[in-house]
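Final report, Chapter 2: Outcomes

The project's central promise was a pipeline that accepts a single protein chain and returns its three-dimensional structure in a standardized token representation, suitable for archiving and comparison. That pipeline is now operational. To close this chapter, we reproduce one record exactly as it appears in the project archive, with the input sequence first and the structure output second.
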Amino acid sequence: MAHFLVFLGTVRDSTPPAPARLGLRVARACVQLLEADGATVELIDPLDIELGNVFKPHFAYPTSRVPAALDSLAGKIEAADGYVMVSPEYNHSMSPALSHLLNHFGSSLFAFKPSAIITYSAGQWGGARAAVAMRTFLSELGCLPVSAMIHVPRAQEALDEDGGFQDDPDRWAGYFGRTLGQLGWWAEAAGSHREKQDPTEVSPAFQRAPDQRNAP
């Protein structure tokens, strides 16, 4: 049974925009569909994680002084089989809230696992331009995005607050399922191969501390 983390890429819990936090609806839909397919899932909401006012990544702290919230999330990232990244679009790119959160962690926690890109908007484009930038970002983290992506235009009309599809639920479930199905397939394949070969044998740099290698 695969285990996934669904990262929510918004911290805007106020209006405007109206309704607030459309991404939470999209993230909840992903959680429900993955669970219905037999996976275990945890929703990661950046509002629940205290990152502090000064940026300092998880791997930059002495072991005994890592903030509990960061250390807990690092363990969850390392233990997961794959990731779903849910983002709105800012200036044709991904959410700064999402990139800020992910940048706290080194690529060795994410590497050799798949990810899925999900974008949304209140307008007609569904955040599709953000997805282009997200492919590069996630590839550098090592959690390669599957080829199919999900874009949800007018998310306030497509989804209710609980993540349910308001109209034509079978069509929406099929659309989401194409991407999430690829994610599940690659997660199972990668997990099976990790049992046969330690990824650090392929990337020996990951055997060193993040501050001692070119890429964290």
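Archive annotation: Residues 3-212 form a domain with the Rossmann fold fold (CATH 3.40.50.360).
This record, like all others produced under the grant, will remain available to the consortium after the project formally closes.
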